[in-house]
Amino acid sequence: xxxxxxxxxxxxxxASKAPELHRIAARMYGLDLTYELLVPRDLNxxxxxxxxxxxDQGYRGLNITYPYKEKVVPRLKIDDPSVRSIGACNTVVFxxxxxxxxxxxxxxxxxxxxxxxxxxxxxxxxxxxxxGVGKAIGFALVRLGAKALRLFDKxxxxxxxxxxxxxxxYPGINVTVAASIExxxxxxxxxxxxxxLGMVGHGGSxxxxxxxxxxxxxxxxxxxxxxxxxxxxxxxxGLAVMSGYELYFHQGVDAFRIFTGCEIxxxxxxNAIETLxxxxxx
Length: 282
What we know:
Number of domains: 2
Number of helices: 10
Strand content: 15-25%
Radius of gyration: 18 Å
Order of helices and strands: EHEHEHEEHEHEHEHEEHEHH
Shape: globular
Oligomer: single chain
């Protein structure tokens, strides 16, 4: 049996749990699989050079994370029209004539939301950060039946581009670009952080505590750490929260299927991960 070689390209990924998920899933199916972290800066290469090296060295596929999910798109064949509209990919499978791209942030968020909140509708949602993961979540929220989206990004062009893409793919969707996160959050039912704020190495929160005012739920795409300042503030304000771990887990299940063709049992995989002995603190 040949080795399935996978990798993750991104910045600031030393704490990523992606290798653990894929290695455990592979053991469940008796697959010989490796999963490596590929940080362009650490390799003294740019993104394209790391991507080309993985392709040339026989990798089956790659996960792509911040800040390269949009940069990789021109290099890929993307069959799903919704993913083409999102304009960001986090999963790549190498093969002729061109690497194939998918977005399991999009499918994974839908699965994670349903797993955590059942059949509840998202309502009116404020989305902070409208780059790679924010775009995928925006499209997923519409699929989940969101009543309206209010977008905010410090780079207003990103918010405007996402609003335009959503309106083109979903004519009639109620989507607006907010001038501030306070404006986006006022009267919202849900709050979504799609920025790196709160991640290890990126302090702070995209949502100051002053915005909490009768919202119902919150989600943070950051999962290292799981308890970000934003989610701690959301719990304190009485919101139901969904951590970034849930997106990490469900997008990982979808990516593993794409890489290997195996339909992993999410419950069995979660149990296998959670029964691992805790690592000693460093």
